[in-house]
Amino acid sequence: MKRPLLRSRLMINCPAIFFLALVAVFVVIADASRAMAQPVSEADLEQAAKREGKIRIVVYPSYRPVVKGFEEKYGIKVEGIYVDEPNIQRRVSTESEAGVFQIDLFTTTTGPIGSILNKWALPYTPKGFEKVADVKKMLPAGWNQTPLVRNVVGVAYNKELVPPHQVPKSIYDLLKPEFKGKIISRTPWLGSNWIVHILSYYTWFNEDMNSWRDYWSRLKANVGRFESGFVQLHTAVGLKEFPMGVYSLQYATKVWGGSYPALAYSTFKEGGIWWPNMAVVHAKAPRPNAASSLPTS
């Protein structure tokens, strides 16, 4: 049964990021087969969410600050599993296919995970959706996923190892001889780097296959280590194992800056590569009111 989200608000904290706070108006009514949601007031939603008492989420690490604020505001316990894209996909798929429905909310991107997990997404159209409608139009038809965060591609670097005049401002700066062996890169076929490799063909290289192939071949020669995990990439830069890492996103310093104060981020003048992260209420969420009340970003 389709269950609409009836209220949302948009919060803008910086030009590169936009947040859509999902505030559903649900109250769960039990019947003989399965709980169904009926629209009520926001106050009733909050009470229904508090009666559910908790929420279980599987999301990207960047969502920790939002979860903390949600717990403090509503007093609803969040059981958070903060992992990268392959692990989100694996956990949601494994549990759902086995008929174990304990996940209330999860996150996706425009990569394969969005397509694979869409069948477990609850359809909804929140009020205020017009604020992100243009982004939603870029997604495949039938995707029941709400864009929340615009990710902008850049480089993570350690300020204690990379002086201001050496901070990469162009994608071609990464090819400089002085950076040989000093760059840690995420494995090309995973997560953000997979998306960057695909989109760069159309943006940075204007569909010129020779330029695309030449750039990635030259960059590979400067990479000192490939790392599968997004968190591990930033940890390596923060711990000074490598001066810089590719490819990073604009929220890196907010998420890991507390542990690594020297961690910094810079985007490229070529621009052109960004994609949204989405939040998804599970179609079989056991706690839909709490899940739909979580301001995700």
How does this model look, in words?
The protein has 297 residues and is α/β, with parallel strands linked by helices. The protein folds into 2 domains: 7-149 and 277-293, Periplasmic binding protein-like II (D-Maltodextrin-Binding Protein, domain 2, 3-Layer(aba) Sandwich); 151-275, D-Maltodextrin-Binding Protein, domain 2 (3-Layer(aba) Sandwich), CATH 3.40.190.10. Helix content is 31%, strand content 26%. The protein has 10 helices and 13 strands. It has helices spanning 42-52, 64-74, 85-97, 112-117, 133-136, 191-202, 209-222, 230-238, 252-256, 288-293, and strands at residues 7-14, 17-23, 27-29, 36-38, 54-59, 77-82, 105-108, 146-158, 183-186, 223-227, 244-249, 263-267, 274-281. Strands 5, 6, 7, 8, 9, 10, 11, 12 and 13 form a 9-stranded mixed sheet that branches. The protein has a two-stranded antiparallel ribbon with strand order 1-2. The model is unreliable at 1-39 (pLDDT under 50).
